[in-house]
Amino acid sequence: MTQNGTVDALDSIRKRLKALHDGRGLSWRVIAQRAEFSDLSHATLRDIAVTGRASASTRRKLGLPPERIRIAADVTAAQRDALHALAAARGMTWSELCRALADGELALTG
Description:
The chain is mainly alpha-helical. The chain is 52% helix and 4% strand. The chain is built from six helices and two strands.
């Protein structure tokens, strides 16, 4: 998430890569062999994890739009705090929660 409260679709992929590499100790070459990343080189995956950026063609290979689409998190401070608490209760980061909401995987009611 950026300082102005926006989330990019690539953020969740970056977190997934970091979890596999840093969290599980997998090498970039092993990660590149996984089905979810099979069209990309180990160097490209490392670059995404380190920089959080990807070319339009790489984004397409990941199933993302070729251009960055920003999702505004236009909420009050109280709403933001409540969403942070909800994310933590679900074992998610704020960015993961925003991404899941934007993708329609989650819905807030009431």
